[in-house]
Write a structure and sequence with these properties.
Layout (H helix, E strand, L loop, with lengths): L12 H7 L9 H18 L6 E6 L2 H12 L5 E6 L2 H12 L3 E6 L8 H10 L4 E5 L1 E2 L4 E2 L2 H11 L2 E5 L11 H4 L3 E3 L12 E6 L1
Parallel strand pairs: 2-3, 2-4, 4-7, 7-8
Antiparallel strand pairs: 1-9, 5-6, 8-9
Helix pairs in contact: 3-4, 5-6
Bound molecules: pyridoxal-5'-phosphate (PLP).
The site of pyridoxal-5'-phosphate has 13 residues, from helix 3.
Length: about 200
């Protein structure tokens, strides 16, 4: 079978074989060692810096998005959402459902977010959290994360990055960029089965 979607993607035969292994207890030394190794590898994938929390939540990539937004902001908090397509719009739906005091900054369809517009909005009022989709799958746009991260850091807000179609696809260093929370989904660039949302929290 040839899969040509962003995800699910074909998986490596070694992974396919591992899926057929017998069940283990959750405290089995092999399970604990595997979990440790996964977290070490997530550290390489996200490079979040020392002391970060790394794990893979059981759910799709959208769980990583919802978990990030709802743990970094509370009802009534000022949140800036940078939207350049379908997955950015999903952040808006979540922010609406959780009743954040959110503002949406949209790019033209097919175009990346303009850092100048972000700078202007951040000068306008204080924000607790800024969220960006790095690679917007619906349009193929790659957003200028370096410039935006720098602005958010200077502003003093938390910065959340949807890295579902970038982590593992191109170099990404949360600590170099100044990203506080990033997540992905196992079935896209990682070419693993769907059902896990790996994340890093600085
Ligand atoms: C696929 C995707 C998601 C959502 O992941 P699901 O696993 O489908 O829930 C979020 N953001 C981007 C950029 C995506 O491509």
């Amino acid at each position: 079978m040839v899969l040509l979607t962003p995800g699910p993607t074909p998986i490596h035969p070694r992974v396919q074989t591992a899926l057929g292994k017998e069940m283990r207890g959750h405290l089995d030394p092999e399970v604990l060692a595997t979990n440790r190794r996964i977290r070490e590898h997530l550290g390489i994938l996200f490079d979040p810096g020392p002391g970060a929390l790394l794990a893979a939540m059981p759910g799709s990539g959208s769980l990583g998005m919802e978990a990030g937004l709802t743990n970094l902001a509370d009802e009534g908090d000022a949140v800036l959402l940078l939207v350049s397509g379908t997955f950015g719009e999903r952040m808006v739906e979540i922010a609406h459902a959780y009743q954040f005091d959110y503002k949406v900054l949209r790019s033209e369809p097919g175009h990346p977010i303009d850092p100048q517009a972000v700078a202007e909005e951040l000068n306008h009022r204080p924000y607790k959290l800024v969220a960006l989709v790095h690679g917007e799958t619906s349009t193929g746009v790659l957003n200028p994360v370096e410039e935006i991260a720098e602005l958010v850091q200077a502003h003093g807000a938390l910065f959340m990055l949807d890295a579902v179609t970038t982590a593992g696809m191109m170099p990404l260093s949360m600590q170099k960029l100044g990203v506080d929370y990033a997540f992905t989904g196992s079935q896209k660039c990682l070419s693993a089965p769907p059902g896990l949302a790996p994340f890093a929290l600085s």
